[in-house]
Fold each of these.
Amino acid sequence: MGMIKEFKEFAVKGNVVDMAVGIIIGGAFGTIVKSLVADVIMPPIGLLTGGVDFAKLSHVLQPAKEEGGKVIQEAVTINYGNFVNNVISFIIVAFAVFMMIKSLNAAKRKEEEAPAEPTEKDCPYCYGKIAIMASRCPNCTSQLDQGPA
């Protein structure tokens, strides 16, 4: 019974749930990108290259074997057209992830760059550190010009 309880605790932790949501959304995004490449980007490129359908580009290593009009053995091919489509899909996904990470890093940098309000100042007489609101230096006991507001 202890193992089931441990698994439940692990499975419902925030990081695991967030990761699962990310994987699901990533899979859906991959499907969208695949469609974008196959249905939107590659047809115009194929048109520009003389009507070439990249998905069907291949190099035949061994032709199909037929007997009596029936295919006994399928052709052995290297489908480099599919490879080109997948490389373009990868580049699009990688660029989208890069842009997302870049924007997150920029937001983090802006957070880190915001300086905190100073809580200390230097005593003009002994140069010791004193509270910003102090009216007397605790080190040299000098009376300071600025006191609490």
Note: The two ends are 63 Å apart (CA to CA).
Amino acid sequence: MVGALLLSLVFLIAQAWRAEARTVQPREGGDMTVGSGQPSRVDAGRYGEASTLEGRPPAARSSSLQARVDAAAPGATIEIAAGTYDGDLFVDRPIRLIGMNRPLLRGSGAGSVVLIRADDVVVEGFDIDGGGGGDLGRDSSGIHVAGARARIRDCRITNTLFGIYLREAHGAVVAQSRVQGIRGKAAGEKGSGIHVWNTDGFELTGNEILDVRDGVYIQSSPHGTIRGNVARDLRYGLHYMYSDDNVFEDNVFENGDAGTAVMYSRRLTFRRNQFLRNRGFASVGLLLRTCDDVIAEDNLIADNARGIFIEGSIGTVFRGNVIAGSDAAVVMYDSAKRAVFTGNSFVGNLAPLSLSGRRTDAIFAGNYWSDNSSLDLDGDGRTDQAYRLTSLFDHMRGNLTAADLLSRSFAASAVGAAERAFPVLQPSPVADAQPLARPPALRVPAPRQSGDAAAAPVALAGSGAAMLAGLATLMTGRRRKPAARGPGSPGART
């Protein structure tokens, strides 16, 4: 009788799974159906296309500094004393604008505050206030750059739709600046903190971005370096597409409604970044869609609804990362090919893998799994039994959105009992054949403590803040010089 009931339950869930699969599978070309919760090519058209370039503002809106700029010779340095300067400033020649004791440039509220329309312009040391106005369709920004080799340093930008906009600004550098959007506006009514479009060779270094739509938005912009930035309290910390050969190091993407999304790109490197506390309904610590040859190493991916999401991507490598405190550590579609996970630590996740599809060729080898109860009797540093990532219920969760609602119910327990009793119900096995018995030496950054305690949500498994504090203690206690790695050892770098 019990067996019959279990089989009936499995049959009903399987029928629901098939019905759900017909409505949420990706459409040909990469778009997702409505309700999937993930970005699509539609986003690229809506937010990424260039608008008509803003020109010189009319005299009534011009900055009180405009005459000094117009009189400057190419290559001149203009030092601006402390004070407040109203109006929008148009820069059409290669000059250096240096703020002394943080002068305030207060825009008209009708367009961009500083418009750079020449190569080799430097803007440094200013506070910039956009007045809460502007036009999203014209990319109104605190600083809007349409010239090569611009240098933006030590600027604090508030109350603008876009913070800093690089439009075909090849070789631009944005460093040690802060962008805070317009408080109270919905995300769809704001722009990005730093927006990079069709720009080859750029650097974003040491910036802080908050309360905007997307922290860093990058499209059609290769050969860039994004290092040491913090983006928090927004929609996407990173929204990224059609941009090859970029490097992300030592950044923090935190407390996003959707997390981060990286799409349609190749040869990317993510190193020592933190993807933290992204807890919206469809949030992902790091999403990779149709991204080939991506390397992610020594990152901290913690307290997210889903830690890593991979779809349609080929040759991704994850090594030396910590994936912790997420509802699902890895969500993977069977369209992802040749993914490799080695030398990672999976700590305190509700499910290690949610697989959407029938099978995967992903390799999991030499990772640490905190819920692995197998022993290491021979003392070789690996448990004596393989660690199995997949269960029938987790497989259903990957193919049936509604199954998440039952993850802690009697139904989930019943499916688990049926799986153990009837091997025919087992999904395609995914296992780590050589799981580590102890966490490896951790080289990920210590978890950043949120500036707003209320912003750290409570994870399903417990307090996210407590989990991150525990990780910090773990890393402090276990940090040591890594042992030399041979070519065949788990996590060996090539």
Note: The chain has a mean pLDDT of 82.
Amino acid sequence: MSGVATAEDRARKTIEIFRRSEREREALESMYAEVFGPEAAERNRARFRWQYEENPHCPPEGPEIWVAVLDGVVLGQYATMPVRLLVKGRTLRGSWGMDVMVRPNLQRKGIGSRLFLYWDQQVEASLGLGLSLQSYTLFRKLQWKDVGPVPCYSKVVDPKVLLSRRLPGALAALATPLVRAALWLFFPTRPTRPTRPTRTTRPTRRNGEISLRVGPLEGDFGTEYDVLWETASPKFDFVAERKREYLQWKYRKPPHVRYDVFEARRGPSGELAGYVVLRAAVRNGVRLALLVDLFADPEDEETLGALLDRAIEYTREASAARLQSFTYDRRIASRLLAKGFLLIASPMQFCVRIKSGVDEEFFRDTSRWHVTFGDSDQDREL
């Protein structure tokens, strides 16, 4: 027999798993280039530093990036993003599972499973969102709760663009008025309140007086976003923390994407009532608008409706064909449906493990869970 150990022999030996230190950085960057290609590695470097090292929930001991090492050689990593999670009124130390990679010659040797299980031991709630088929299969195999996919809602704003992808130009032009009429008839946009539009604000009225204004967030997220979180978050059974520091990092500082934020303010004092985060993107050759995050008291139909009105207008301003959103919450979903959104097939699988304080019914009834496209690292376009 040969005295040279095979890759499988090496994987069977004692593998150490621990938090990444500076010693492993160069080896991991080299591995990323090997697995995904040098161009992807270069594009990813700034996003990776922002996502893991600059995260406001990053612990003092360093990013929650777990590495598997054998005889000083890095075999794989699982990069995870810490998050504070509100579950039935309790704040848990959670973590989103994100970037997993194993050296190509060691894949399917159980190293990924070891990394997953080690990560799970470090937190109170471990979360996998928007999973690849391989990761989804592994989560299921390791008995995480499968609560996905997260329902996806789509509002068609310009049917002509969508029809043009399936029909010749002349037929698409002829069909467009018919489709517009059908959407108006069967999926109407119900008004929130009478409005008096201006260039930068979208006010709603109550008893003839303006009660709510929706306009762009100028500058940074302020401390009143912390107040909004404390007021609205208890209305959800499951929601990731959305305080000022997190929002500033998530939507003002990413190096790879730009967001537009609109806030709803109520009454003469301008009290913050909610916000929506939006951006335009191109998917499969079609320009669409992404409703990345939406947060308000889920029982405040006026605020939710006004923010969705602004999102629909944003879609038109961006010349996008449709507007896309995700949520489990039945109250937010009812506002989406009232604005003419359709429930469509969702690509966003979600697996969860919470170690204590919840029962099986908690996972069966997700109607008060709020998970959006902005959670985890779903919006990672480079």
Note: The chain has two domains: 7-146, 152-345.
Amino acid sequence: MGSFVNPFKIGKTYSPENFIDRKEEYGYLVGAVESGNNVVVVAPRRFGKTWLLQKFIAEGGYPVVYLDLFGSFSLKGFVQKMMKQGYELLKGKSPMNFVGRYLKHIAKHVSFSFDVGGVSFSIDGELSDELLIEQMYELLEGVQKDLKKKLVVVLDEFQAYRSISEKLPESLRSFYQVQKDVVFVFSGSMRHMIEELFFEESGVLYHSCLRIDIGKMLPEDESVEYIVEKFNDTEKKITLEDAKRIYELTKGHPYFLQLLCYELWDKVEGVIGKEEIDVVFDSLCERESYGYELVIETLEYKYLKNVLKLISEQAGDYFSNANLQRYKIPNATTLNNLLKKLTERGIIEKLGRGKYQIIDPLFERYVLKRME
């Protein structure tokens, strides 16, 4: 339509004009780092966690090393990425001088090359985890001292640390107990693993970080205003009531709200109404049907619809006899097993003792329609 491009964004790349709410969480993150505290950000998958981190990187005013642990499969590869980012922060140094100054313990094993992405570093030979970890921290310390300002290291999806090194958490604790000018921001989407590491007494990183928990859906008023503005600014029309329908279907989930709006903008000409919204939402359900069927096969599907209805309609007290009878769930064990499996699959999220919320609205819609 004309020269307009689709204004709705999904994916990991931060888009300031599409960032909705999270003011409280962002303000807390900035304040924690300013005070020199390490932070762990916990949120379900596709809940805006990475956008929050990227907003901080873009606007926080600190030099940042950002590493996504899902994209690293060895300690050597992890350190190589850190070397590249450290080099880029120190603008102007030659790669050879950089290696000699900051990587002196492994300098003879390090080579560099130039490509379209700038300078890349490689580590040759078999080096021990202990040596690589020691060199990694010396690199961070050296970069921070030369920059003469606080250095922030963001480790996204930290629950994947085992693919890098089992020794990483313990080594991190030892490092930041003595180095106060390098601040770490961790994030994770596997809540039970993050809880074990950071918030249980037996965890290696227990009491080492402040906590930011992104558990709330986006606020309705701000989300609806955003939807109406984005459609109307690109010469497509939607009423306030129909924008609320989008919010209702997606439950204010950041990813699914953007996804549904993206598909509507792409598929519907002119006016977006309730009928078009429901048709496109159901088409998204069908698009995901193969994956959802695989999930259903691994669950006690006989009671799956009942459990989803229970979570959707009740604020808590799921295990009471009245609720078990009302939703035709045979016993507390069946309910507990399904809640555990749905949590592990990222379909629901535990909010606190005995309370959950559904965080995949497409899956909920698919199950309820399939089992009618």
Note: The first helix runs from residue 23 to 34.
